[in-house]
Amino acid sequence: MTKAAVCREIGKPLEILDLELQAPKAGEVRVRLGASGVCHSDLSVQNGTLLQPVPAVLGHEGAGTVVEVGEGVEHLAVGDHVVISWVPQCGTCYFCERDQGELCEVGSAALITGGLLDGTSRFLLQGQPVLQMAAAGTFSEETVVPAIGAVKIDPDVPLEQAALIGCGVLTGFGAAVNTASIRQGDSVAVVGCGGVGLNVIQGARHAGAERIIAVDMVDGKLERARQFGATDTLNAGAGDPVAQVMELTGGRGADVSFEVIGLEQTIEQSFNMARRGGQTILVGVPTIETNFTTPAAFGLVFAEKTVKGCWYGSSNVHRDVPKLARLYMEGELMLDELISREIALEDVNSAFEAMGSGDVARSVIKYS
Ligand code: APR
Ligand code: ZN
Ligand code: ZN
Quick one: which of 3, 136, 245, 335 has the most CB atoms within 10 Å? Predict the structure, then answer.
């Protein structure tokens, strides 16, 4: 039995239930979670913005210890510390071979079914299957995941910090370092400074950006953005952020802009604050009804602008997770500062409520 936070019905609070957890099948591992971050995408499943079949154990940003390995798993052993990847990456499909592991054919299928790679989940409630978000389900004391979705890390990295690497850090840092091409000395604008946006900011700094303009509606978020490397901050509620970015960049616009919320209005703003010849990276996950339009001639051709989607920070998790863990150990990656509250699994619904507050970058569930 394992205690887990289950979304049984869209729009309703998560329920803490005792579930049966089946043993890992071939190519899977059972992981005892040490910690799980609560990410905006969990809330997006709970409130119906992101389509994920329910009932399901939510949570997709976790790290823990391998406690059982299924048949044929050779690269992991009991006792290994792992970060769970919500896109399992096979390393050999068309996309993985082209360094686009975030689009892995094998792993992506699981995102849709709510099961593991064979489409079934390992959680049961009174004999009925309970699905697992993104082949993960980290709002649970234990889970079973595909072995290609568990990445071994240095056991010296604390599991609370390691958990954050699994989604927010990979996504944000990767958006700046992998998806965008930031050059030394570039000016960058980041719209939305939540858990993911802060990582875009520290990734942009790592990539050599000189000016990093943070945009948010909450002053507390902007203060924290400065701590992560923003050189300028703009409160979008206090005036048109596009005009303000223009003013800060000599009327040209930013070399690279990032949208890290997923709203039509902020996507438009991000596009408009990028300079001619610049790039806009869309990181935030919009609803399926959200559109983005621009006049083809003036928006794109004459202005030579690029708009690029960013999925999971364009990360090869088998390369990037250990790299980020190493950067943290070397003092080059801020993870401690992302953890605003450590909570118990039972308090997961309160973490959803806290998300809008300026004081909270990430709530992290700590398992005992
Ligand atoms: N203008 C500027 N900032 C805004 C606006 C707006 N109109 N609306 C919201 N924000 C800010 C919020 O104040 C908050 O700081 O955007 C930030 C969003 O942060 P979080 O809620 O912490 O979300 P996060 O976990 O960072 O995820 C952001 O990335 O991975 C995706 O699904 C995720 O779409 C979500 C996005
Ligand atoms: Zn996430
Ligand atoms: Zn693959």
Answer: 136
137 occurs within a structural domain: yes
Ligand 1 pocket member 354 (CB < 6 A) = no
Residues 124 and 25 in one domain: yes
**Do 229 and 119 fall within a single domain?**
no
Same domain for 122 and 223: no
Q: What is the C-alpha radius of gyration for the chain, rounded to an integer number of angstroms?
A: 20
CATH number at residue 31: 3.90.180.10
How many structural domains does the chain have? 2
For residue 285, the CA-to-ligand 2 centroid distance in Å is 10
Pair 7, 144 in one domain:
yes
Separation of CA 171 and ligand 2 centre (Å): 8
148 and 189 part of one domain = no
Task: Report which of 186, 161, 216, 208 is spatially closest to residue 328, judged by C-alpha positions.
Answer: 161
Q: Is 92 helix (H, G, I), strand (E, B) or coil?
A: coil
d(CA 305, CA 273): 11
Whether ligand 1 lies within 6 angstroms of the CB of 195 is answered as yes
Domain shared by 146 and 37, yes or no: yes
Q: Which residue range is the domain that position 287 belongs to?
A: 172-311
Q: Is the CB of 194 under 6 A from ligand 1?
A: yes
Cis peptide before 13 (omega within 30 of 0): no
Residue with tokens 């769970």: 84
For 70-116, the pLDDT digits (tens) are 999 999 999 999 999 999 999 999 999 999 999 999 999 888 899 99
- Verify that 80 and 176 share a domain, yes or no: no
Q: What is the pLDDT of residue 112?
A: 84
Determine the residue of 38, 40, 190, 362 to mutate for testing ligand 1's pocket, defined as the one with the most ligand atoms within 8 A of the Cβ atom.
40
For residue range 110-143, what is the model confidence (pLDDT) as tens digits?
A: 888 999 999 999 999 999 999 999 999 999 999 9
Confidence grade of residue 224 (pLDDT, cut at 50, 70, 90):
very high
- pLDDT tens track for 330-341: 999 999 999 999
Bridge partners (DSSP) of residue 21 are 123
| Cα dihedral: 265, 268, 272, 273 (round 10) | 60
